[in-house]
Amino acid sequence: IGVDGALYKSMEFSGEGLKNLSMEDRLCMANMAIEAGAKNGIFAVDDVTLDYIKDKVDREYKIYKADDDAEYEAEYTIDLSQIKPTVAFPHLPENARTFDDIPEVKIDQVVIGSCTNGRMAKNVRCIVIPATQKVYMQAMKEGLLEIFINAGCAVSTPTCGPCLGGHMGILAKGERAVATTNRNFVGRMGHPESEVYLASPYVAAASAVTGKISQPSEVM
Q: Tens digits of per-residue pLDDT, 93-116?
């Protein structure tokens, strides 16, 4: 639906496939609803939701759900089993391609993390940014940060960082980055003649290994 297909609307995600989506998956998708112009992105409450909030809420809460006779401006049915790894090419999140239509693209940097998604190749920088302090602590306890650091990655404390051109990973003229962030507009991550390719953490990690945009199957 593009970057303006849901302007001033609400995007609701529901259906049989929800049981296969973790809370992290849902948080990423709800975040990206804004990139379609929506005012918000919401998911139906299910057992996964309730399990996630059980140790995070210490007061009574109310569950809201769509009316049985709710009317929608548009409905889209997506078969999750048919989705292929996708990369958004510069300079819009809607400029998406699957690996059936991606040429060899050499890269200079990989950013894994940020609010959207919280192996190094020669001459490729890899920056890992946990979404929150809690995620940072969990990654540390599980030994993931040690793995990243030993692989040559730079691990940041939670921050927007290079996602909005703030610091730590600003791109120079002509540089390309694969990022798990949410936007890739002109100049978003540095020089206006740099390029940002949006991808999943799996694609980003694979690209960090190979030094070019790669799908996970290439390094497994």
A: 899 999 999 999 999 999 888 776
